[in-house]
Design brief:
Chain lengths: 112, 115
């Protein structure tokens, strides 16, 4: 399985944008890029996913490099509630079982 | 709203006891998963099921078994609990393939302590 590399931790100020990077240099053509986050004392929750084009939803934006070897999750205005561990995961399109392999993720700390 | 519920938030069991962790989802998902989460090791897949009575081993199935008699319910069984099975257990569910949806929905977790 293609691997992802994320910084262990990042810090942000409340109400400022946050850019969470993810490197996936061995990504294959059929790998989707998924992001999940895990708030304290909760199970992970889906944030966003994409294949080649940038994606936006109500929670975040996903910017994918042209060569797809890296991506960035963008939180436009961080709130204290966004403090969580963010996981970048590659999922093969042909993985009908929807299995996910979680790495270490990035712990985002948001300062008031 | 999709809901995945787990039978207990906290559980304390003794070494050697048989332990049942129950998970129920209400979205008619085909796939269900059991993970455990430990500090420094992240989430690791124990077992998953893609249909009733079907199961597949994940990365760390040793010491565990599962049961899926109904589509909405997936049970994780520790036949003889040991202290190294003290962990946070997370259940998840999803549709099959990309056509109907792709997200895994997670329950709140069960923190199991084996003494």
């Amino acid at each position: 399985d293609a691997k992802t590399t994320q910084p262990n931790s990042m810090e942000s100020n409340e109400e400022e944008p946050v850019h969470l990077p993810c490197n996936h240099s061995t990504i294959s053509g059929t790998d989707y890029i998924h992001w999940y986050r895990q708030l304290p004392s909760q199970g992970p929750e889906y944030v966003i996913h994409g294949l080649t084009s940038n994606v936006n939803n109500r929670m975040a934006s996903l910017a994918i490099a042209e060569d797809r070897k890296s991506s960035t999750l963008i939180l436009h205005r961080a709130t204290l509630r966004d403090a969580a561990v963010y996981y970048c995961i590659l999922r093969d399109f042909y993985n009908a079982g929807n299995m996910l392999t979680f790495g270490g993720g990035t712990r985002l700390m948001v300062k008031p | 709203d999709v809901k995945v519920t787990q039978s207990s938030r906290y559980l304390v069991k003794r070494t050697g006891e048989k332990v049942f962790l129950e998970c129920v989802q209400d979205m008619d998902h085909e796939n269900m998963f059991w993970y455990r989460q430990d500090p420094g090791l992240g989430l690791r897949l124990i077992y998953f099921s893609y249909d009733v009575k079907m199961k597949e081993k994940g990365d760390i199935p040793e010491g565990y078994s599962v049961s899926r008699e109904k589509k909405e319910r997936f049970s994780l069984i520790l036949e003889s609990a040991s202290t190294n099975q003290t962990s946070m257990y997370l259940c998840a569910s999803s549709f099959t393939g990309m056509g109907k949806g792709y997200e895994q929905y997670f329950g709140p977790g069960t923190r199991l302590t084996v003494t």
